[in-house]
Amino acid sequence: MTSALMKMDPAGLPALPSVLGERRYSCQTGGKIRPGIKVLTRAAQKIEAARRLYDEGVEAGQSFDDIEARIRAAVPNLDRSPLTPRNVPYFTVRGSDFAMPEIARQIMSKYAEDRGDGILRLYRFPVVFASDSLLDVMPHKLEAYGSGSIKFWSDFSADGSERYCMTFAPVRKASSGRAIRIFGGRKHQLREANEGRCDPENCPEYQNRQCNVKGRIIFYIPGITRVAPLELPTNSLYGLDAVRETLRQIAAMRGGRFSGFLQGQEAFWLTKKLAEVPHIDEEGRAVRVEQWIIGLEVMIDPTRLLGAPQEQILADGERAASILTGNAERIDDGTDASFVAETAAAVVTDDGAVVSEGRIATATVASEGDDGDGDVGAPIERDVSARNTQQAPIRTPQQAAPASPASPAAAQRAPNGTATQATDGVAAVTAQAQGIGVDAGKYIQFAGKRWGPGWSKNPNGLKRACEELESYRGDPAALIERIDAELNVFS
């Protein structure tokens, strides 16, 4: 059976066949705001040429990568990198980090502050997120680089139970002995060592600090004229975790959403805060050190976000109207009490068949710079109390609604005497999930976390879920990975 729904990709665009394939949507950014600075190492400070090139580069607004390259070219006998990261309370904005250097000047002009030292610095700035998916706005993984390119990186199995170490597959050679032309990019494979499992504590690259967490926060800045979003790269587990927890708290208050403006305001501000973080020294002892950690402030009264989302308000209004007009009934068929089915009063067609129209609604509760590493934070749980509202009379499946003459409107909906079948929204979503090999229970839980508990009460919410499932029909493994990441990694 061919679905009447247009196939959509994860970015919400029509998924048309393309030789580019159906890879997961990856956001391309137009510039970087750095979480810290780099300074000369003690060895480099002793070299006059290194000091001169560093000062010239900083004054000219060059990126630290460019400054380092110039120093290495002028002083080739340096054993190590001439620059080292330094943890500072402000962000770094340089024109060379942007496709349009004017963007850096716009940011500093609007949001830089002088905090008494006579120097304008970026201590905090507002951001707006374009997606409600944590993996879209905060992608991160373990990565190891070699010879200027990525060598190994972490990835999860389809069910999220295993973390693997991935690498590029060797390029196959033709009979002539020359490497074949690769179509669609280099192929990936599991690393041969350790059966492909990612085990940092037994990984030589991780223990030698060659493999580290690499993440970035992707956002827009209000008032900055740029179509592409900007990014803040960070290696800090503490910073990433702090941002994640703030976004999850806001999503819990907004029915699963944190994208866009909050109450019409630019509510999220990226900033830094001084905190004590645990650190294991070379002797294996736990010590605490002070570091400036990336944080996300919410500049709005949180209680204003606790109102029901607009979609849920509309769905509740429709349900109340159907109850008041006598066109709704509760069906007690032994299923979980959180699932309430509503069907319209039965009508009789011209050929005497008794049919009904309806919908199903669920009320289930869904559930930088190097500034430190580690893992903190706890999952956020929320409890939604049962509503204290009067319900329509309960009927069991054996107690069918009495037949009544068809109204003109109902007859118009069922032309030629054909019966219009009752629509079971959640059941349709469940069947579609199972049809593409996705665990239906997990998808229902994922949908509740993503869109809030009101998604299944609204026809638009049910349609959106069906469209998303259809968009992953060609690559269900990508959806399974996304669901497991949301339920397990960010649980």
**Percentage beta strand:** 15-25%
Count the beta strands: 19
Average pLDDT taken over every residue = 76
Q: pLDDT under 50 segments (min length 5)? A: 328-423
Find the structural class using helix and strand composition. alpha+beta
The number of helical elements comes to 13
Strand order of the largest sheet: 9-8-7-6-10-11
Backbone shape: globular
Rg, nearest Å: 28 Å
Question: How many separate structural domains?
Answer: 2
User: For the report, how would you describe the main beta sheet?
Assistant: 6 strands, antiparallel
Distance between the termini: 36 Å
Helical content class: 25-40%
Structural commentary:
With 491 residues, the protein is of the alpha+beta class. The protein folds into 2 domains: 201 residues, no CATH class; 182 residues, no CATH class. The strands form 7 sheets. A 6-stranded antiparallel β-sheet has the order 9-8-7-6-10-11. The chain has a 3-stranded antiparallel β-sheet with strand order 5-12-13, covered by helices on one side. It has a two-stranded antiparallel ribbon with strand order 1-2. Strand 12 and strand 13 form a beta hairpin. The radius of gyration is 28 Å and the shape is globular. 28% of the residues are buried.
